[in-house]
Fold this sequence. Notes:
Its cofactor is pyridoxal 5'-phosphate. The protein is an alpha/beta fold.
Amino acid sequence: MNTTVSGKMFEMAKKVIPGGVNSPVRACRSVGCDPVFIQKAKGSKVYDVDGNEYIDFVCSWGPMIHGHAPKEIVDAVIETAGDSTSFGAPTTKEMALASMVVEAVPSLEKVRFVNSGTEATMSAVRLARGYTGKDVIVKFDGCYHGHADSFLIKAGSGVITLGIPGSPGVPEDIVKNTISIPYNDDEILEQTLRAKADTIACVIVEPVAGNMGCVAPSKTFLQKLRDLTAELGIVLIFDEVITGFRLAYGGAQEYYNIMPDLTCLGKIIGGGLPVGAYGGKAEIMDMIAPDGPVYQAGTLSGNPLAMAAGIANLKLLRQNNFYKELNEKAEFFADGLNRAAESAGIPVTLNRVGSLMTGFFTESPVTDFTSAMKADADRYGVHYRQMLSKGIYLAPSQFEVAFISAAHSQEDLEKGIKMTEWSFKNMA
Length: 428
Ligand SMILES: Cc1ncc(COP(=O)(O)O)c(C=O)c1O
Ligand SMILES: N[C@H](C=O)CCC(=O)O
């Protein structure tokens, strides 16, 4: 595979962009190669600047649940752009998307749009602090909630991938207000919350962890979290930036039937345009300015292009059997990957929830950050490079998820499985 133009672009980019990338994990350092530069994408395929075609299992890290450039979304964006790309004023489109989101996500009564998942989580935590008058937040090791200061403590995603324990630039005063505890450990959860309930404003959790690779909540974990936070006067925040509109139209809270107090969204609700949102019970949301004293604002918040793309994306999700069919595709793919590992004799633990999955290169179960870290990341690097050379575009880290989209055809999935089998056998 020839990637000469990508190579040249990367050298040029490194001169003007730190590390040559606008988000660290894209630099592909943990998988031991340089990134390919993407030129365009359509449906399940992405094409690089050298003209190579790949089946895309990254899907822009989740938003492209219908694949790339579906006509409905492209048309909506083009039509909207003709009326200007931003007003910094209320629009009917933001009201329409807010209504759709509130109708879809069971625990939401009101929602506020922002420009990224990070802004959503950061604002939700500020709101929880304002509402409770308490400062401490509890998160879980290996979960990622964006790059706001309070979250960069034992965080997942690029922070694990690059082995950064905590980030310089985050003041000690902020670190001391974040407690990070193991995911799926009911006992430590209960001890921590009971011991410090007077100081804890909120618990923020990925209801299915997607940023240490895919890790499902245990049967008891989310319910325990809900019961304890309700009892102790702590706000429960579900970070559904990945799971929202992905596991079900109403997200993980519908999938598991557990209702948080606040929910953070992003990715799918913007159809690939920059967006985030946070919402919840009116009683809490009414604390936000201008109704209440908790300040949060944004020049481009509710941007018309993002709203138009989001509306079109959500309308497509309402097709009959959408989630059933998507999850069946994912199940087919996961079964194929398991068979490939078995026939090659490679130890792989495949975790899947709906259309999210990760094959960890380890034989032991992966239920939290500690067990995820047992996976052989170097082996994943070899697998990543081999798959790329065969036209399969995977996340450039062992600690991320593969996304299945509605655009993946049977042929795409079969090719993905066949190449996985080849790659595993090639490294056995
Ligand atoms: C669960 C979760 N929360 C928050 C974020 C932050 O979103 P963004 O990258 O849009 O700031 C991400 C992804 O990056 C995420 O996966
Ligand atoms: N894991 C992140 C999002 O879900 C990866 C995206 C990024 O940080 O660039």
